[in-house]
């Protein structure tokens, strides 16, 4: 059995074309062509139209840690609703556990340095971000375009860099089997060298988000 904020490797692997990174260190999955090109283009247009500087939790003093821009997507928009339905059908997680989906935009030279998506229970922002809905469980990330150069997502613990590809989904479990944060999920949204990079990020929580 798994809880409402969860999915399982078995559920994910049941879909055609899903690849599982061959490592015991974390559960990481990829699938190409998860979103059709037209939907990627529509989501890029939404990100272009409404973006703000990205923020971080537990600020570490490095103003260059996350230099991208973020868009809080409007879930009443039909393209965003389509994205959400596609995700729901894929992972089976109760949609109530999902945070508002975001778009991220990286221009040349922008990056998100190595971090985990789970929050540090001893960190100063735990109360602010996790007191109601709890820890992040799963991360779903979708590349919305092909990037000319750079912009890969690097998982150092398994020496793997995932290259952006239009419509490709990447997802992973942020926790170890005992529910605590898995440091092997540390990842780096690497600098874009040429072109612009757009991604969707959708995070799930242990308890309902809203
Ligand atoms: O852009 C990437 O490749 C990684 C994005 C990311 O890690 C995040 O938004 O949490
Ligand atoms: Fe991340």
Please tell me the CATH architecture by its name.
Sandwich
Instruction: Give me the count of strands.
Output: 14
Overall tally of domains:
1
CATH hierarchy class name: Mainly Beta
H/E order of the elements? HEEHEEHEEHEEEEEEEE
Could you walk me through the main structural features you see in this protein, from its secondary elements to its overall organization?
This protein has one domain: q2cbj1_9rhob like domain (Jelly Rolls). Strand 1 and strand 2 (28-31) form a beta hairpin. It has 210 residues and is α+β, with helices and mostly antiparallel strands. It starts with 8 loop residues before the first helix and ends in a 5-residue tail after the last strand. 18% of the residues lie in helices and 27% in strands. It is built from four helices and 14 strands. Strands 1-2-11-7-14-5-4-3 form an eight-stranded antiparallel sheet. A four-stranded antiparallel sheet has the order 6-12-9-10, with no helix packed on it. The structure holds 2-oxoglutaric acid (AKG) and fe (ii) ion (FE2). 2-oxoglutaric acid binds next to strand 12 and strand 14.
What are the salient characteristics of this protein?
globular, Jelly Rolls, binds 2-oxoglutaric acid, vitamin c, 4 helices, four-stranded antiparallel beta sheet, 210 residues, alpha+beta, 14 strands, binds fe (ii) ion
């Amino acid at each position: 059995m798994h809880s409402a904020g969860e999915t399982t490797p078995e559920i994910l692997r049941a879909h055609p074309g899903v690849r599982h990174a061959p490592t015991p260190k974390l559960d990481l999955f990829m699938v190409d062509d998860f979103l059709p090109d037209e939907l990627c283009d529509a989501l890029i247009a939404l990100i272009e139209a409404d973006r703000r500087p990205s923020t971080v939790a537990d600020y570490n003093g490095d103003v260059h840690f996350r230099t991208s821009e973020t868009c809080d997507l409007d879930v009443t928009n039909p393209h965003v609703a389509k994205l959400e339905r596609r995700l729901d059908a894929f992972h089976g997680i109760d949609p109530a556990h999902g945070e508002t989906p975001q778009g991220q935009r990286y221009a040349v030279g922008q990056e998100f340095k190595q971090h985990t998506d789970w929050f540090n229970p001893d960190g100063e922002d735990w109360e602010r971000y996790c007191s109601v809905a709890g820890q992040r469980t799963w991360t779903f990330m979708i590349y919305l375009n092909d990037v000319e150069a750079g912009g890969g997502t690097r998982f150092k613990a398994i020496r793997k860099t995932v290259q952006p590809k239009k419509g490709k989904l990447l997802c992973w479990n942020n926790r170890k089997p005992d529910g605590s944060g898995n440091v092997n999920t540390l990842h780096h949204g690497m600098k874009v060298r040429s072109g612009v990079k757009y991604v969707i990020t959708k995070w799930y929580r242990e308890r309902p988000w809203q």
